[in-house]
Design a protein that fits this description.
The structure holds two protein chains of two kinds.
Chain A: H1 6-19, E1 23-31, E2 34-41, E3 46-52, H2 54-68, H3 97-105, E4 111-114, E5 130-133, H4 138-147, E6 155-160, E7 165-169, H5 183-190, E8 199-203, H6 207-213, E9 229-233, H7 239-254, H8 260-270, H9 272-291, E10 296-300, H10 307-319, H11 326-339, H12 344-347, H13 364-378, H14 387-398, H15 410-415, H16 418-421, H17 425-429, H18 432-438, H19 463-466, H20 474-524
Parallel strand pairs in A: 7-10, 8-9, 8-10
Antiparallel strand pairs in A: 1-2, 2-3, 4-5, 6-7
Helix pairs in contact in A: 7-8, 9-10, 9-13, 10-11, 10-13, 13-14
Chain B: E1 8-15, E2 24-31, E3 35-40, E4 45-49, E5 53-58, E6 66-72, E7 77-82, H1 85-99, H2 118-126, H3 130-137, E8 144-147, E9 163-166, H4 171-179, E10 188-193, E11 198-203, H5 215-226, E12 234-238, H6 242-249, E13 264-268, H7 274-288, H8 295-305, H9 307-328, E14 331-335, H10 342-354, H11 361-374, H12 379-382, H13 396-410, H14 419-431, H15 442-447, H16 450-453, H17 457-463, H18 497-500, H19 513-544, H20 546-557, H21 582-597, H22 604-616, H23 622-633, H24 641-651
Parallel strand pairs in B: 11-14, 12-13, 12-14
Antiparallel strand pairs in B: 1-2, 1-7, 2-3, 3-4, 5-6, 6-7, 8-9, 10-11
Classes of the chains: A alpha/beta, B alpha+beta.
Amino acid sequence: TLPFNSHLLLFLTSFLAAASSSFFMSCSRFLGSVGTIIIKCKDLRIIQLDIPGMEECLNIASSIEALSTLDSVTLMYPFFYRPMFEIVEDGWSAFLPEKEFEVLSSVTDEWRLSYINKDFSICPSYPPVVIVPRSIDDETLQKVAVYRHGGRFPVLSYYHKKNGMVMMRSSQPLTGTNGRRCKEDEKLVNATLRPGKRGYIIDTRSLNAAQQARAKGGGFEQEVYYPQWRRIHRCIERFNILQESLIKLVEACNDQSHNMDRWLSKLEASNWMTYIKEILTAACLAAQCIDREGASVLVHGTEGTDSTLQVTSLAQIILDPDCRTIQGFESLLVREWLQAGHPFQQRCAQSAYSNSKQKFEAPVFLLFLDCVWQILHQFPCSFEFNEHFLVTLFEHAYASQFGTFLGNNENERSKLKLQQKTMSLWSWVNQPEELKNFQNPLFEANSLVIWPSVAPQSLQLWEGVFLRWNRPSRFLDEAEEEMRRIIDYNRFLLDKVNSMRKQIMQTETEDGMDRMQEVDSAANV
Amino acid sequence: MEHIRTTKVEHVKLLDRFSTSNKSLAGTLYLTATHLLFIDANQRETWILHHHIAAVEKLPLTTSGCPLVIQCKNFRIVHFVVPRERDCHDIYNSLLQLSKAAKYEDLYAFSYNPKQNESEQVKGWQLIDLAEEYKRMGVPNDYWQLSDANRDYKICETYPRELYVPRTASKPIIVGSSKFRSKGRFPVLSYYHKDKKAAICRCSQPLSGFSARCLEDEHMLQAISKANPSNRYMYVMDTRPKLNAMANRAAGKGYENEDNYSNIRFQFVGIENIHVMRSSLQKLLEVSGTKGLSVNDFLSGLENSGWLRHIKAVLDAAVFLVKAVAVESASVLVHCSDGWDRTSQVCSLGALLLDSYYRTIKGFMVLIEKDWISFGHKFSDRCCQLDGDPKEISPVFTQFLECVWNLTEQFPQAFEYNEAFLLQIHEHVHSCQFGNFLGNCQKEREELKLKEKTYSLWPFLLDEQKKYQNPLYKPSFSPNLTLLEPNTVSFNFKFWRNMYHQFDRSMHPRQSVYDLIMDMSEQNKQLEEDIKQLEAKIKQKRGRSDAVLVKEHQQSAHPAPVMLKTPPFFKKDQPLIPLNDAVLIFAFAQWCLTRLQREVSVPCQLLSALHLLYQLDSDFPLKNILYKLVLYHTSETNITDNIGKRYQFVIV
């Protein structure tokens, strides 16, 4: 039993639901008989509660502490959350790989679905169903899986309808120090190439790091064995370096300092914007290889669960207009992040205010969302969704009443029986009345490839996340509202003018008909 | 023109400034008396006004030709490659001559002829009337009066003729005070806050040295504080860093000693001088102009340039000033060294924060005329209009515009004007195309007879004010409180990309929300007009036929949205024309048939439908639409069978 008084409990739970972020850290200090609890939330908000009575304050603090550091996933909110809305479309079955494949098979028959991983035995972090070249049988896949880190053999990530080029993703090959090769792997990789065409392998590590990986049994594709492929190294930072970056950035943003130099040097020292540029550049490179060079691409880093996914998913946003719609973006997240096995539970455990070192924590997904926001910022009419949608996804990835982002891969999710025991985020998001809040009123379907600028002058700090709680936003919100009003009013006026025009034309037609009949009858006479 | 040796060079290449792949555009370079013009192969024109050229540089010869880099005062940088070195040399020399005028009469403004007649020219100059502006503020009144002391520029050459001073400040006090102030710039009224009865006054530094004092000057300050019935304390803001002010004492200048002046509160606010600002901008431009710049180099370059720190310092000073006036109802006297750079920045920004009038298009013009032009900000020296001392150049006015831009970012609905307005003013401060900013002070302008020989910029900006209107502007923005209280925490200040990379298109967002909203809000006005006209038309028709009226009612019960005059951003997935509109289809099919069968008679409803469709889009894909129409039509039941059959014939 928790020693909350009922009023506070109500306040806290309502806050939980409203801000959809569970508390994560609290520290208490006392001034006289009033205790103060400072709550630092995963969505970067900081709340201070002054509570009269030392004992009460301590009780509340320890309860919050206990509740925010639950040991077991099954004790988390999604398992207790009961939706207050009616489910129109079940989000769990909204984006099935079979459905996605149907679309693909209507354009090409070079690919097939493989159920080789249906019991997660070949690759624990892959989904049960993957798309592979038709010419490669499951037996070959099995051998390739052994040769790739964590069993993550190359699978299809994206098919570029415009020219039939593809993007594959995998993990590093296990060449080791003695340069082991795997003919099946070479066969699989080459099966994605058109005759006479070359491909690009984008390794998301520096050459140095890739070489060092050999000592640990990893490595990279050697030119001798993959003569049709050109390897490009694009260093994207990973793991704890990213986490430190986030912590530094948030710290800088929370500093209400009037010292300009300190702010700029802190912003610089966080390196956050550098990582944004790195990731966007790598994604642009992949997109360029596919669209401009007409070459197929294989992307991997070490495990193929982090930087690899950033690159493949961003490249798709650049290339594929479908990914810029709400449904398409959700489908992209399901395919390239959830099913592809980005370990959300490890990466998004504590957010920026963690005081204990979390070994696997890293804001990989937040960086991806930030990159999407950068592109959205540069092409504000090409996305069906708005900034609020991205911010919401950020919040839910870290703390949510929905089960979507729980677990580290499909394997764990199926063990947790999330589909039966929790709600899908998509069931909630895709309700018409919720969707309204995420729609971009300026959206105009743009079937083109959109190339973002990665010049430092073009990149901006994502204020909607990082300065959200630090500055008054009233005037900006009101301006936003006014903008919406102008757009809505424009639609209203257009409709009205058109219906009036039509009305007039109708009467003119009637007139004309009458006259024509007159002419006809006159002619008959 | 004697300076032009070559007027036209062909096969010149224009390099992309930031592209790493050495992309270039070939074209022809023309040199005219006023402009450098480049026309590329796509017939796109790049005009560069000679006065805008800040520096021309010839780089070492390369295999493809002789590179010529031109840096402009509006931050455009163009990089040409001229095939022959001799041509390059000629152009280089010509531009060196043409970009630096030796005397005012050589400036563009004296030859610019916008085809206005004389009375329009005079009216243009009368558009901004400062006497009217002081009246708007509520002076003269019981405490403040117009002084004729400087009517003939006898007391201060760099002040305007008309100055407002406290009623209790007699002429001897004014004269005495002016003798104790650098360049004779004694304390005068800059802005009067009617409600608080507090004044913003401006002057230059006192010639106090280490111990000198001047009773008249002390009386002058006392007169200012007594002219404010709400608070007898007044602030004296020295906008310089304390160290600079102290150093000035050695030269017999300095700052007010609080012991000698009664009821003053003295405050330094630490804005750096023109030289620091000049080199800061230089550093900023070096960083932002680097090819293949990394994020960290950009951020550390931004930090090292100190530019944003200076912008923040200026705005912080204005915020301090505004707090004194708005919260304490205190009068404030602002000065720096000579009282024409930092003082102009702080006084004008203060007024902008206090008074919503200056946030309108006209009001902003007034503000610039008052605090910058009339009070003698040295535009000519600071913007290097004539070939002069390079140490006098400084981006003081640019900083002011940047502060305003920062405010528009924080208060998107508080300003009637937009960023384009600020950029356009910046453009013309340097263009020397209009007379407003020529010269260093009013006296000089009168001697140049600018009002007869040149034109005023403001009427031209007002004529095209649609371009400069902020679609989100709300005049009633915080109605009871016209005061703006900006947040000046560091993260609010951003690099002004649209100013410093205005001409580097590749860096800008590819789609501009702001432009769309502007177009839309413009279109909304047009649509409102259209609706009025259509309503009148419908009314007229209703009067004509009752039978039609009945049908109209039936129709309006199911209004099918017909997209006519569709704006570009709504084209989306909608078909070009409404396929469900039976009338149009009918008309079109008929027309199609008549064309095919070479029938001569064209029914009248067809004509009106056609007319409408042509209004839609002049180059509309007729064939496609016909095909679609006819295809669609085979399933349309509204039309008589007879006509339906004939359509099928057409498809075949």
